[in-house]
Amino acid sequence: MFRSKSTAETGPDVVLIGAGIMSATLGMLLKELEPELTIAIFERLDVAAAESSDAWNNAGTGHSAFCELNYTPQKQDGSVDIKKAVNIAEQFEVSRQFWSYLVENNIISNPHKFIQSIPHMSFVWGEENVDYLKKRYKALQQCHLFKSMEYSEDQEQLRSWMPLVMDGRDTTQKVAATHMELGTDVNFGALSRALFNHLEKLDGISLHFNHDVRDLKKAEDGSWLIKVKNRDTREKQLIKTKFVFIGAGGGSLPLLEKSDIPEGKGFGGFPVSGQWLRCNNPEIIAQHQAKVYGKASVGAPPMSVPHLDARMIDGQKALLFGPYAGFSTKFLKNGSIFDLPLSIKANNIHPMVSAGLDNIPLTKYLIAQVRQKPEDRMDALREYFPEAKMEDWELEIAGQRVQVIKKDPEHGGILEFGTEVVSAADGSIAALLGASPGASTAVSIMLNLLKRCFKEEVETEAWQIKLKKMIPSYGQSLLNNPALCDELRLWTTSVLELREMEMA
């Protein structure tokens, strides 16, 4: 596909729509694999990674399945299914390898601007939940990816791990927690901007902010014609390209629908908004050094798992609790209230209605969340931080998540809580739909996209050698090779120089 240089008449080889972590990762991979490649990136806002990839909009940072209980559901027989957690943990290791490669090759000069070491914890209370967490721990111990995980029901041990969570708690309450020292905090907004800053310096790369992609259509010669509008000058232009990636977060579905590819028929989207409680008291912020995840409420979407979350954002330590879910018809935080109704088409209305009827508890949950008062939010926070005071917290608006609705032979339509790559049969266009755990597994997602859309190139010796250089475990299973996993974890930790977050 990329054996000849582009000209001004034919346009760039690749167009990336959206300047978030997905486009940044794909652009970086492609440029490393094919240096002569020309790439144009179009972003509707005036800065990169201002939507789903931004730290304040991102519901979870450094998803590695160490603490997220929604990735380990309990089955009807009482056992715990760890398949998804194992898959996510392995994919996160792949991301760490790619980031380490970028650091070693001075593509990213200061990893501490986007990644920090911080323990990942799961915390539950009540006999039934404690029993679940113990089963989860025992199941995960069978996989070496989780071998360093610790489990405890001792309140004093838990107090040493997370003092804010335990101080003021009823000493007779049945509690339990797991602790994973290997956890990380990742600022995907900072990472995305670092990658785009590097890409902009390379020949053949053009980054266009305040540019809105309005339409796209396949030409007779197999290329794509993309209509772009400059939001500053109102000028419109037509771009011709060989390959299009739609990585526009919640804005991906409308553009996929406009592409009119058969593979995109029947997909719908269900938007879920979010809010945080953000701590404004430095003394309290300094006392918490962990990501503490609990169990989601009945009917809650998986990405609404409550967590008391310590983060590093723009060099400052922050403490958040949430997210509190809500409903908006916008597909983007900076989108339009007409996004949802305009996305309903003849080919997806049946799956969307069917999915809606099957998820009435979710609808009820979102309505209840929207109607919450500040006192209700504080009550939820005090389950994790018993001594929390309202004056120390303020409400922060989080980003939008558009969950995937797809056709299903049995139910007509199902609501998926994950990511979905939709690509044309000829590999000329691909779109990423969905949310969690997206950003943390972006490298694996984009590697799979390469296999779909660049089948011939991926099989060449040159690409295979380069892929294995960028991701040393490429083509191998970390799950089935504990020694390789340990070796690469040691390497990535050394390269990224992960350290305990300073409390000062």
UniProtKB/TrEMBL annotation:
GO terms for biological process: tricarboxylic acid cycle. Gene3D superfamilies: D-Amino Acid Oxidase, subunit A, domain 2, FAD/NAD(P)-binding domain. The keyword Oxidoreductase applies. The keyword Oxidoreductase applies. It catalyses: (S)-malate + a quinone = a quinol + oxaloacetate. Keywords: FAD, Flavoprotein, Oxidoreductase, Tricarboxylic acid cycle. It is an enzyme of class 1 (oxidoreductase). Its cofactor is FAD. Pathway: Carbohydrate metabolism; tricarboxylic acid cycle; oxaloacetate from (S)-malate (quinone route): step 1/1. InterPro entries: FAD/NAD-bd_sf, MQO. One of its GO terms (molecular function) is L-malate dehydrogenase (quinone) activity. Its EC number is 1.1.5.4. NCBIfam families: mal_quin_oxido, PRK05257.1-1, PRK05257.1-3, PRK05257.1-4, PRK05257.2-1, PRK05257.2-4, PRK05257.2-5, PRK05257.3-1. Belongs to the MQO family. This is Probable malate:quinone oxidoreductase. It comes from Chitinophaga niastensis. The gene is mqo.
